[in-house]
Design goal:
By secondary structure, the protein is mainly beta. 4% of the residues lie in helices and 51% in strands. The chain has an 18-stranded antiparallel barrel. Strands 12-16-15-20-19 form a five-stranded mixed beta sheet, with no helix packed on it. The chain has a three-stranded antiparallel beta sheet with strand order 4-3-5, with no helix packed on it. The termini are close together.
């Protein structure tokens, strides 16, 4: 963005600059063909929400049900896409960035973002915290998730010395080297409720926080120490990743809770605002090893940003003609389900190595160890116990959640390559990414009882899980035309392919057209939860 500058200092440097963009982005759902790899009847066929009643381990295919209308039924969604032509999103954005350098040692940065969007038919399937009639759900999503009027970033850069600087204010802090996997990019939560996360810039989906950051540099050894403290003064709901149950078009389908419970209210136990027990902090030690490699060591103490973990629930008191009966509770009606964001340590390292010709590859590795990750149990678990510490004995039941070690690592290889018969003037950039997660010491009971997402009993954890992403991009006519292809595969059998074309029109206009095809035979494996979300998406941006 070129920006608009006002004022100069004595050396002719700009002291105040404003830049930004106006953008319209919309998409429609379309049934594409990759599902035909697993089931030929699904290729190019319309998808709509289809759910079957589950009895034991089997589907009752003669008993279709609607989990949005009847949340107490044992409905297991198998399709949750939109009909061809249904809008997947419509979002208009105004973003303005400003930088002001009133003093040599001080810089002020601010980002404002205003968003207006349309309600979508798919928000019928949204799952707000409080039970709403289906007709009210789309309005709840529009009011609480899609529209925005926010000072996203506002911070001061203070350069105290050549070796010491501070950044204080509402900001994003990015750690890690492997991009899409975000193993150590754990400081800011994200909001993916308005579109599929990997298709958007992390800069747009991260939720900025009020943070104090200090950078201490050691030039003689080419190292630096970065210290981060998050005081927890943001709105509590902004301090964690937005649950994907909150939206319909790009949210999760209604969970397949095979129980008679109707949950009237989900109490998300967000970190307490401004309290010492909710503060977060950590450090990154980063340096060079020779001229072709860098590394970093990271530690961060935070909350488990996603998913929230059910910890206990309250049964609804019995009522007769509107009168509460003392000591009586409805065993089929859950008044409140409490979901927590547990505390968590994260330790990790990164390395970046450049291999010169003839290999000509940049290799990045990133690893994270979560020694205390908390996993929810299946929703019909027999391991819940009465919480006698509660003021009303017998009303509250506590889940016995489990903490397990989780170790993840990712490797990224990047190589620019000339393919002259395809592009005689510009390189192609090949990117290959691999991620592997290990949860050791899972016994046979935990393998069937612990899940990745609360309520999705089919989505059990595995000792080993892995995924791979490949990307290829180039540009033509001095950047006027920039095609890109990304392919992702999540073991055992799900993934997506997205192809996009970016057009640069004069200095200020940018147009992107993208087509994305999801695939997967099992909606409860990997990105199979999105397998019916094939989409064509158009974005038009004017930059100033």
């Amino acid at each position: 963005m070129a920006g608009i500058s006002f004022g100069q200092d004595e050396d002719g440097e700009q002291t105040f600059q404003v830049m930004g963009y106006i953008q319209a982005q919309s998409g429609v759902f379309v049934p594409l063909g990759l599902d035909g790899i697993f089931d030929s009847d699904r290729a190019f066929q319309d998808h709509s929400m289809t759910a079957w009643e589950k009895r034991g381990d089997n589907f009752a295919y003669d008993s279709p049900c609607d989990p949005a209308v009847n949340p107490t039924a044992s409905c297991v969604p198998v399709d949750h896409g939109g009909r061809a032509g249904d809008p997947s999103m419509f979002r208009t954005t105004l973003q303005i960035e400003a930088d002001w350098a009133p003093l040599e040692w001080l810089n002020v940065h601010a980002v404002f973002r205003g968003v207006r969007a349309l309600a979508l038919a798919q928000d019928y399937w949204a799952q707000p915290p409080r039970y709403y009639d289906v007709d009210d759900r789309s309005q709840w999503v529009l009011d609480n998730r899609y529209n925005e009027f926010d000072l996203r970033e506002f911070y001061l850069d203070i350069y105290s010395a050549d070796w010491l600087s501070f950044r204080i204010g509402r900001q994003q802090v990015t750690w890690g080297e492997t991009g899409q996997y975000r193993l150590l990019d754990v400081i800011n939560p994200v909001d993916n409720s308005w579109h599929f996360g990997p298709l958007e810039s992390f800069r747009d989906t991260r939720i900025p926080l009020w943070i104090a950051k200090a950078l201490v540099e050691f030039p003689s050894i080419e190292h630096s120490l970065e210290l981060v403290w998050v005081p927890g003064i943001d709105r509590p709901e902004d301090s964690v990743t937005v649950p994907l149950t909150f939206a319909g078009a790009w949210g999760l389908p209604p969970s397949n809770t095979p129980s008679p419970y109707r949950i009237e209210y989900k109490n998300f136990m967000y970190p307490s605002r401004g309290m010492p027990e909710s503060m977060r902090g950590g450090f990154r030690w980063k340096g060079n090893i020779g001229s072709r490699s860098t590394y970093s060591l990271v530690y961060y103490y935070t909350h488990q940003l996603s998913p929230p973990v059910p910890v206990y629930y309250d049964l609804k008191a019995c009522e007769v003609e509107g009168q509460v009966i003392d000591g009586c509770f409805d065993s089929n009606n859950m008044e409140t389900l409490y979901l927590d964001f547990p505390r968590q340590h994260i330790l990790g390292f990164t390395a970046d190595v450049t291999f010169d010709n003839p290999i000509g590859v940049v290799a990045k590795i990133e690893a994270a160890w979560e020694p205390d990750r908390t996993f929810p149990r299946i929703s019909n678990t027999p391991y819940s116990t009465i919480d006698e510490s509660h003021s009303v004995p017998g009303q509250r039941y506590r889940f016995n959640v489990v903490q397990k070690d989780a170790i993840s690592y990712a490797v990224v290889l990047m190589r620019p390559t000339m393919i002259r018969w395809l592009n005689p003037t510009q390189n192609f950039l090949f990117v290959l990414q691999w991620m592997h997660t290990i949860i050791p010491d899972i016994d046979h009971i935990e393998a069937a009882d612990l899940i990745n997402i609360p309520g999705f009993n089919e989505y059990t954890i595995k000792t080993h899980s892995w995924k791979i992403i490949a990307a290829l991009r180039t540009s033509y006519f001095h950047g006027f035309l920039a095609p890109k292809v990304v392919m992702a595969y999540v073991h055992p059998e799900s993934g997506f392919v997205t192809g996009s074309i970016n057009l640069r029109i004069f200095s200020h206009w940018r147009v992107q057209l993208a087509v994305t095809d999801f695939f997967g035979s099992d909606p409860y494996k990997g990105v199979g939860l999105f397998r019916d979300k094939d989409e064509i998406n158009l974005r038009i941006r004017y930059q100033f």
